[in-house]
Amino acid sequence: MSASQSGASRATARAAGVAIIASLLFLGCANAESADAPPAKTTFESSAWKADAPGVRHGMAENLINSRVLIGKSRDEVIALLGKPDQQGKDFLTYEVYSTVNTHQGPAYAIRVEFDATGQRVHEVRVDTDTGIGDLDMN
Fold first, then answer.
1. 30 lies in which domain range?
2. Is there a single domain that holds both residue 107 and residue 63?
3. Does one domain contain both 51 and 104?
4. 26 and 71 together in one domain
5. Quick one: residue 42, left, alpha or beta (phi over 0 = left, psi -120 to 50 = alpha)?
6. Residue 12's pLDDT is what?
7. Does pTM surpass 0.70?
8. Which of 9, 11, 19, 53 has its CA 20 to 30 A from that of 131?
9. 136 within a domain of the structure (yes/no)
């Protein structure tokens, strides 16, 4: 093997090594980003909501609101479906929602379940913007 062929072989091996390292770094960064990404939107499911794994409620929030599954339900029925609320009052319940798995940033927003004038039945389910913790991005 001549000196020029040996040099070319080393250059090819070096280029291959750089390409492998770059690929591994790219894959590592892509995986790190996906850990912080909100989960895909999904259909509301009571046991998953109550388990409250980070980010799970965010994936279900739009469906929970738009399906109107809580409208007309009593306070006890709502708590049976959603679990213990994070806050409650005479005419409302709120459930904190984390938009990513990074719960150290605090909740992104809350789902507010509002009861009718008698306090007996749900008449509205919405994103709670009164707390100042943010709006739900329905996109």
1. 1-36
2. yes
3. yes
4. no
5. beta
6. 62
7. no
8. 53
9. no
Residues 65, 32 share a domain = no
Q: Cβ(45)–Cβ(83) under 8 Å?
A: no
DSSP 3-state of 25:
helix
Confirm whether 135 is domain-assigned. Answer: no
Q: Kindly list the strands in the beta sheet with 122-128, ordered across the sheet, starting from the edge strand earlier in the chain.
A: 87-89, 92-97, 109-115, 122-128
Does 17 fall in a domain? yes
The DSSP symbol for 132 reads S
Question: Distance between CA 8 and CA 58 in Å, rounded?
Answer: 54
Rg, C-alpha atoms of the chain: 25
* Tokens representing residue 6 in the block: 């040996």
Q: Which residues pair with 11 in a beta bridge?
A: none
What does each C-alpha distance from 112 to 17, 24, 45, 70 come to in angstroms?
A: 54, 44, 17, 11
Check whether residue 77 and residue 118 sit in a common domain: yes
**What are the backbone angles phi and psi of residue 95, rounded to the nearest 5°?**
-130, 120
